[in-house]
Amino acid sequence: MALWQNPKWFDAERRREQLDEHVSETGRARFGIRTFQENEKVRAVMRHFNRVAPKYDFMNSLLSFGIQHVWKRAAIRMLAPRPGEKILDVCGGTGDLAILAARRTGPDGRVVIYDINWQMIAAGRPKIDPDPQLAHIAYVQGDAEQICFPDATFDAAMVGFGIRNLTHLKRGFTEMHRVLKPGGRILCLEFSQPTSPLFRTLYDFYSFNIMPLLGELIAGSAESYACLPETIRMFPLPEELAEMLTGIGFEKMTWQSFTNGIAVAHVGIKRR
Length: 272
Known about the structure:
Strand order of the largest sheet: 5-4-3-6-7-9-8
Number of helices: 11
Number of domains: 1
Radius of gyration: 18 Å
Structural class: alpha/beta
Number of strands: 9
CATH architecture: 3-Layer(aba) Sandwich
CATH superfamily: Vaccinia Virus protein VP39
CATH class: Alpha Beta
Strand content: 15-25%
Distance between the termini: 53 Å
């Protein structure tokens, strides 16, 4: 028996319940298997990340056996930041993607970590602020569904393992599209459904037995680390996400799966 309830993988119809249209129609939004009033979800997400922020980086590396860093490096190679570019890291949290991008843009570029949760930003600053080669990274606290920058500000926008926590998924992507220059690139790195049924069974066992146990022992919250795999099971599959991004106004969508589909990176270009 699992230590934590396994909500199973959602079918296509139930995955659509996580999208903006259903949320707006019902006034209800999910965070993991829990359902909130539409305007309450953001506070639930804030509470969750307030709890996990102090040990966020350590727990991510532990629970992924360090392979998350391989995924992030591969995703940044797909985005291909160039010297001098301005890049927005939406739901940027502790800044792993921003650091990788900033090393490619160089000091003539600008990378902005944009996150609604200041505790997450603060948790990542000790690995950024002391490094003079990362001085062109800036921090902005703000809502990903209402990005504070003007239209056509950035050459690229990226989001890593954060977009699924928004109340209105499409609204977040639409805001990323808005702040990109024509021809600008988007990167979305997110968890997904493992492709092999056998691997998926092992992944489910790990997700709802080992992860909550380690979350309780090390971070003091089993619930926080059960919530992570719950949200993954509700997120659009790679083909569905590519279709959504195309409908928002991106083209030339490509994606790459990592580690039997546990994580997927999508890259596209804003139509000129």
